[in-house]
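Lab meeting, action items carried over

1. Structure of the two-component assembly. Owner: GW. Status: complete.
Input record:
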Amino acid sequence: MTVSPLGRRIVAAAVLSAAFGIASVHAQEKVLRAVLHADVRTLDPFWTTQTIAGIHGMLVYDTLFGNDEDMRPKPQMVDKHDVSADRKTYTFTLRDGLKFHDGSAVATKDVIASLRRWAARDPSGQRLFSFTEKLEPIDDKTFRLTLREPYGMVLESLGKTSTSVPIIMREKEALVDPNTQITEAIGSGPFKFAKDQWVPGSKAVYLKNPDYVPRPGNEPPSGFAGSKIPNVDRIELVWISDGQTAMSALINGEIDLYEAPSIDFIPTLLKARRVKLMKTGKIDSTFGLIRLNHLHPPFNNIKARQAMYHLVNQEDFLRAVVGDPEYYTVCHGLIICGSPLANDGGSAMLKEYNPKKALQMFKEAGYKGEPITVLQATDHVTITPATQVLVQAMREAGLNVDAQAMDWGSVVSRRARKEAPAQGGWNVFVTTSGGVSGSDPVLHTWIGAACDKGLFGWPCDPEVEKLRNAYGLAQTEEEKKKAARDLQTRAIEQVVYVPFGQWTQPLAYRADRIDGIVPNTGLVVLWNISKK
Amino acid sequence: MTAYIIRRLLATIPVMIVVAVFVFFLLRLAPGDPAAIIAGEDATAEAIAAVRAKLGLDRPVLEQFVLWLSGLAHGDFGVSIFSNLPVTHLIAQRIEPTLALTVSTLIVAVSLAIPMGVVAAWKARGLVDRAVMAFAVMGFALPVFLVGYVLIFIFAIQLGWLPVQGYSPIREGFLPFLASLVLPSMALGTAYVALIARITRASMLEVLSQDYIRTANSKGLTTRRVLMLHALKNASVPIVTVIGIGIALLISGVVITETVFNIPGLGRLTVDAVLKRDYPIVQGLIIVFAGAKVLVNLLIDISYAFLDPRIRY
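Predicted assembly:
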């Protein structure tokens, strides 16, 4: 048998292709490979408040509004909107040409069902809907929101840049019980989710949506606002759980962007050729807080709670957690420093580090050396060192600390228990929260004091809740600033939590490969990035 | 032999039931709550309770166990709490990289360790023997992750010969597939090579002192023939046993190696599932690992009959 020259070439090409990798159809594609802080493990952005679910949601879906880097809401899917003179009626009209990935047009029925599903799970949505009298369609493109009171945070809530983001899904999915996970990801956003290529715990793939209609006029991107331009054909969110490996992969050019490198890796990344670091947004990404359990002694006594302020020298915590002062800020406030509403209301109470005074105040509160149960996470990159500093400070002051070491997952379940510490409850735990929520009294759930309906620790003060509502109803900037200041003053006095500073999480990227990263505090923005 | 294999296969059923009981209840005894992880940082206790109820985690543990076991009897491993995908689908997605890594490590380890052990025994107490034994001690002492990081630093970062991480399926080309396995196999294989080399040496030393080896030598057979044909074959039963035992070592090593080299295999799936308290996945994986271990043991036992004609079942 003889083989023609052409046949030999075909066989040779096939062998080479098998050996060296398929001369892939992806070769011409612009692919952005990014390692984020977690893997995409669920497709439902409302089902969980985990940040990664929000990032997934923002790639696949779109939002009515998007807050810019100064947290001012700008229309996104909305073409125009009117607010009545009494600020109780909002009328919204959707932009032309909005289509879901299955080709169907986005209609008001989808919007209304989505907002209802969002509000069932998200605290800011719940607050918005607590003021809502009616949400109704006028036609396929126009709908109306009628409020009972002139709540001033309507647009800010619709444009929020932290989870859960009020994304718009098809009515079919939006009608699914909010406690049940949806299994499809069909939105109208700049990227389509490639479900067939999804390997949970390893890789999630997003393909450019050719039908996406960005906001006209090439509006400059800022936070979630501006024209969203899908500049790459494909985004691969690769999950590398080992930080050292992720850093090496970035240096070696195997990935383009690493969202959350450990602060320990910063010196190495700064020295790496072609790698650059950038801060995620105008305000710090994270703040730290010590939560006290208001239900049980000694912290059911306000004096003991206030005594804790005198045990916290924020520099000690921040040096242990972050290390490099370039990335941390001492902040004697509960509204995050550097944000538009930051103020010094009540901050004097937080500034005096004085362990002797703290012990004296504990004694005055009736403390007689009973063990104070601290939930000590052992496996968290920031919470573990912060808790160690706290435990040491409490012991040095003369308190009897029962530090119970456990993994973070166990802290998360244990902190929900309301029993006394001896019966499996707790007195103190340390946690962190996002800068976006910390900058807004409505989004800032840890500042609340809603008793049983509040977060773990269950601070209970009607005045704090009244002031949060007052902020929500404030109309002018001055009114908002005054309400925020009054709220912070009262919340510090009641010790809703003890802050231990704030810091920013830089992201690292290959400057020789990608361009156009939009800084954003909250969820990372991936749609405007282009490949060089 | 057939009756023996059937008996052994039947005997795996109670073993798997015991494994199932242990894995289910140990997971429930371990602290942590998937509902709290799902509900997120800022979720209230009520929100966590709602998620727990929706997932059926608030039902009595015994009821949950019976439900899981009856599903298992029908080949249904359950559904992942987080991704909502069937556990069997997730395992099927991840089995290829783990199989590839395990097989490549086995090939590398056996093909290096047996010659090393044979030569060390042949040149006992000489320089080569001491070098092999020093390597064996080092291989045992160095943790897999450390070997992995060192290999990454040298061969990926400094020399740029191989990728830092990831897995390239064989369907996307043989060379990329091979390149993605070289460093992980070396890291995972280090302890395994050490183990097999030591056992080979010890077993060969014992055989080489036998009369029939002296006879073979006095008949004028070449050293290679004596070592490979007469000595190694008779020394092979303990070597094969340790290769089998080493499979368990490989399974635990795979968990770490896949994490360091970011290989999307069963090891990574296990770590992620444990950290998230994704009970159905952990349970499914332990069953699969236990089944694999039982099967390997069976294969090793069967191989004895071929290696040593005196052994009959």
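2. GW to write a short summary for the group page. Key points so far: Residues 10-25 of chain A have pLDDT under 50 and may be disordered. The radius of gyration of chain A is 25 Å.
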